Model the fold of this input.
Amino acid sequence: MNAWQILAAPVLGMLASNACAVPLAASGFDAGAQGWFAVNGAHSFDWQGSGGAPGGHVQAKDFDGQTLWFFAAPADYLGDKLTAYGGSLSFALKSDSSSLALVTPYADIHLLGQNGVRLVYAGSLLPGSDWTRYNIALVADGAWHVDSISGAAATAADFEGVLSDLRQLRIRGDYRQAVETTGLDAVVLSSAAAVPEPVTAWLWLAGLAVVAGTARRRT
Done:
């Protein structure tokens, strides 16, 4: 390894670490339900200490296979989450049913903001018997809509209004026509990746070039 590589390695590592997204809220369910619950027609909501992706997880069941229900996030995920715009919501789902998918398309995620403004995401999720991981971008990319999946495409301004005072975050748990038990695990709400300022990065690299050149001449 030459002098440049030796000197650059820690700085490049620092810059890479700064480019990582920052978790704003996370639930691994290894020690309990962490405040999550189920709403809108689910029953038998409980925490399981094993069988997750990995570790523990939460799960709930349909009443009759007809009512669309959701997992609801606790307070850690709510409030001022404006920095989540450009970030992501990731989670894992699992269903114990192999029946046909619901015929009618529904939103997979609901974000409710102040004044009742709701953003919905319809990505045609369909978890199977094994854990399936999803990573949903929180950005105005055409996949998010206002009020319903047939509503207007959400804009950056819509996201900013909702995320600045997030009142509800819900993830759908009902995907199959027959009665099913759906599990949820590994939920992470993340901010956008923090990219180092160009000027800062160039100053670091320029300084390293000078030091490396000096070290090379001395050698």
Notes: The chain has a mean pLDDT of 84. The domain at 22-192 is CATH 2.60.120.260 (Jelly Rolls). The longest strand covers residues 181-190.
